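Possible regression after last week's pipeline update?

I re-ran a chain I had predicted before the update to compare outputs. Posting the input and the new output here so someone can diff against the archived version. Not blocking, just want to make sure nothing changed silently.
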Amino acid sequence: MRSGRGIGLLPFLAMLSAAAGANAGSATECEVLLDLPPAPLYGTMMLSEGVAKAPGLLILRGSGPVDRDGNFPGSKNDSLKLLARGLAERGIASLRIDKRGIGASREAAPDEAVLRVRTYAEDAAHWLDRFHAEPRISRLFILGHSEGALIAPRSGARSPGSSCSRRQASGSAPSFAVNSPPPV
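New output (post-update):
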């Protein structure tokens, strides 16, 4: 079922905070991995302490050599790590990932001749399934920025085990529910 246009980042984060219903304070951060060929993919999950069940947000960043914390080679700002920390303080869990060929997942880089958006969408769907398996996650959301906004609808549609809503932070793809195919 299509739900029309995406909403802006700030209203989306306010909605997530309301869904969490908690100001958790401290958080636990742990590295997670997906054992996929040709090499593992790595990410970081941040969970609020003292919150039994929390909404979870998969963060898909934009194109280029940006790592899971939001850093470019030679330029460290930790923007996505700071976003995750702010979400955790409001009772929202997050999972931020290194895509193939970037950061700790650099060994999983595919040949550029066969690299497609579909590759990243399938990886993100695997991450959604992994996040969904975490017992403290109540509901999943995807936040896609730039290239991530193109990947988000395709990954949600490929992850049938997940209950997922998607909102874009940037890009022009419309929002839709997981059980409907992405627009062509």
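Follow-up from reviewer: compared with the archived run. The chain is about 25% helix and 20% strand. Marking as no regression found.
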